[in-house]
Design brief:
Blueprint: E1 4-7, H1 20-30, E2 35-38, H2 55-66, E3 71-73, H3 84-90, E4 92-94, E5 98-103, E6 106-111, H4 121-130, H5 133-140, H6 144-164, H7 174-183, E7 188-191, E8 198-201, E9 207-210, E10 218-223, E11 228-233, E12 238-244
Parallel strand pairs: 1-2, 2-3, 3-4, 6-7, 7-9
Antiparallel strand pairs: 1-10, 5-6, 8-9, 10-11, 11-12
Helix pairs in contact: 1-2
The protein binds manganese (II) ion.
The site of manganese (II) ion (MN) has 8 residues, from loops.
Length: 248
């Protein structure tokens, strides 16, 4: 049985061309995989499926679509406006914000991760607004130029605010993690968003695997029947950062 790969936070954008190098390595590896799950923020921002795609990013999407394995997408806080047209271009099927699945015989909860950062009350309030059908409808009816301007100003605002917020507020809340796993009757959670790649083994028996954000190095989680690995890689090297061998 082949491996299943999980990634998040590639943040494709003209300003993050560096990520296209590890992307090539991912595409070579995923060509032999049984599945590829994208846990959000594939794009640094997405204002609607009419957003212009630079040629090199378009080529990356075409490679993704051409992979023989099934591809799945959970939206992130930056690309939640991805619609059917872009999903078709990616060749990916959409999943709900929280997806509880059996992958290579491991029961896993997958999500982007931002909903678990409940200590950031201001962010959660903004998220609720942005994710409302009313906002979506109103925003998508605006001209493309205006939507792009709004996205860029939100991005600048989030950068300024992130740099002034205490570190722990920007991370997931342990009680929110426990509540989610209890609700899903699972003990292993995989997410991105926080850009703090690690495997956290909690005393409660919960394991939380966080994949990293992409630049000159990419990050992935590889799932085989025997183990789950967190890996960091470039075009030339792959480092296995940590390995989980779930109890049978
Ligand atoms: Mn995110």
């Amino acid at each position: 049985m082949a491996e299943v790969l999980i990634i998040a936070d590639v943040h494709l954008a003209p300003a993050n061309r560096a990520a296209l190098q590890p992307w090539q390595a991912l595409m070579r590896r995923a060509a032999k995989a049984d599945g590829l799950y994208l846990l959000g923020d594939l794009f640094d921002y997405w204002v609607g499926d009419d957003q212009p795609i630079p040629a090199e990013i378009g080529a990356a999407l075409d490679q993704l679509a051409a992979l023989p394995c099934p591809k799945f997408f959970i939206s992130g806080n930056r690309d939640f406006l991805i619609g059917q047209e872009l999903l078709d271009r990616m060749g990916a099927k959409p999943l709900p914000d929280v997806a509880t699945l059996s992958i290579n015989d491991h029961k896993l909860v997958l999500c982007h991760g931002d909903t678990l950062c409940t200590d950031d009350v201001a962010y959660q309030a903004m998220r609720q607004q942005l994710r409302s059908p009313a906002f979506r409808c109103d925003f998508l009816s605006k001209p493309l130029d205006e939507r792009l301007a709004i996205a860029l100003s939100l991005r600048a605002k989030s950068r300024t605010e992130s740099s002034s917020k205490p570190e722990d507020i920007m991370d997931v809340n342990p009680a929110a993690v426990r509540a989610l796993l209890k609700a899903e009757a699972a003990v292993i959670l995989l997410h991105g968003h926080t850009h703090r790649p690690a495997i956290h083994r909690e005393a409660s028996g919960i394991t939380r695997i966080v994949t990293g954000d992409w630049g000159a190095k990419g990050w992935l989680i590889a799932i085989t029947p025997e183990q789950i690995t967190l890996e960091c890689f470039t075009g030339e090297m792959t480092e296995i950062v940590d390995t989980l061998k779930p109890a049978a």
